[in-house]
Amino acid sequence: DEGTKFGYSGNFVGFGQQSVPYKLKRLCPWLSSIPYIPNDEEIIDTNILDKGEFCWAASFEPRFVASLLSKGFLTMALRVGPNCYVLLPKLHHERSALQFSNLHVSRSVLRKSSRFAISHDVDFDAVISGIQTQHGDECWLYPPLVDALRAIADSFHDVVTVRTFECWLDGHLLVAGEIGYVVGDIYTSLSGFSTYPSAGSIQCAATAAWLELSGFRLWDLGMELPYKKKLGAHLMSRHDFLTVVEFARKKRPRPLLQCGKKSTYRARELIDKRLLIAYVS
To answer: CB of 190 within 8 A of CB of 160?
Structure first.
């Protein structure tokens, strides 16, 4: 139904037969100041953003969201009324990106990592819940976007794969995690959480090691933050980032390295393997 398709519910009394975008702009006038993207994955144009970083759409249809992700947009959601949301794709002027040759793992993180294990795609709902709990009212992972990301994660997509990474303390307690997506050989983080000292840093280091060992070219970390710089990330201009994404989009999403049926690794094991390869090369 329309409520599911466009991420809202309820009646728009007084709007008559006016269009959905018009109704939503009446609820949130700020939307009138940024470009609107129709629900058509074939006409998404990154040039729609000139000086700004945000645009918006009235659809959370999974293939549409996947198309936005594949073209470099970081998709968020915005609440504009009771049970009413719009999609808020963002294309940063500068992107914080990690080239794995620049990865820095501190001695403290390496020492503490022995108690932690990392997995991927084990508990989507727990990762989402952890992010929502940590970020509270500022969390943009609203229900229609979560549903779209889950649908992309659950179905094979030849351009985009949605993934979660989980970090476990002593093998059983989930203490950190993140959700992101893969386009070709680029992994992009969307959001994450941490509930235990150093768990976030260890999860980042182990995730970076796993991605590098799997042959990924770049880890896109979104906006610049101090912990990302500490990890070794540097800023890329929008033009340079989109050039890399365009090239990556020609490839199928790269899988993660597996050892047999093993889906969980000791964080220290992954970091040590990466350090050994870096040392030898």
So the answer is: no
Closest of 64, 111, 83 to residue 10, by C-alpha: 83
SS3 161: strand
Q: Which residues of 90-114 are buried (b: 16+ CB within 10 A; e: fewer)?
A: bbbeebbbbebeebebeeebbebbe
Report the alpha-carbon distance of residue 115 to residue 127 in Å, rounded: 20
Residue 116 vs residues 34, 38, 113, 201: alpha-carbon distances, Å: 43, 44, 5, 11
| Alpha-carbon gap, residue 72 to 154, rounded angstroms | 21
Cβ contacts of residue 138 below 8 Å, gap of 6+?
none
| Calpha distance 255→102 (Å, rounded) | 22
Contact 179, 148 (CB under 8 A): no
pTM of the model: 0.90
CA 127 to chain centre: 12
Distance, CA of 245 to chain centre: 14
The per-residue pLDDT for range 88-139, each reduced to its tens digit, is 999 999 999 999 999 999 999 999 999 999 999 999 999 999 999 999 988 9
Q: Report how far residue 233's alpha carbon sits from residue 265's, in angstroms, rounded to the nearest whole number.
A: 24
CA 114 – CA 22 distance, rounded (Å): 54
Section 263-281 average pLDDT = 79
> What are the phi and psi torsion angles at 184 (to 5°)?
60, -120
Question: Could you tell me the two tokens for 260?
Answer: 């047999």
